[in-house]
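Hey, can you fold this one?
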Amino acid sequence: MGKLEFNNVSIPTTILLWIMIYPMMLKIDFNSVKDIGKNPKGLFITWFVNWIIKPFTMYLIASLFFFIIYKGFISKELALEYLAGAVLLGAAPCTAMVFVWSKLTKGDSAYTLVQVASNDLINIL
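Sure. Predicted structure:
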């Protein structure tokens, strides 16, 4: 399965993600997306948590594990690489899971779409 790739993108993973996301995307009223600006507080909270709180929290947690608890098991260079990965992972939640949790909690699909899209755009920058 690992060899089924196109431009370093796993085809099976891509298909499974779309199977998970597509049904939720069908229920989004894209006309309501334009109304998100009337209540931007949720977006500001999401951006603040994702880009101010979570990277530092992940830095502290990863430092504890990689430089103290697992110090004898991994090299300092590898620990630094893991640390960088943990910080990035903390700041960039899995898009598919955000949609799943929104669906499970009966959240606003349009609002979730804007939160995820804006966070992904920040990731790209």
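The chain has a mean pLDDT of 84. Let me know if you want another pass with a different chain boundary.
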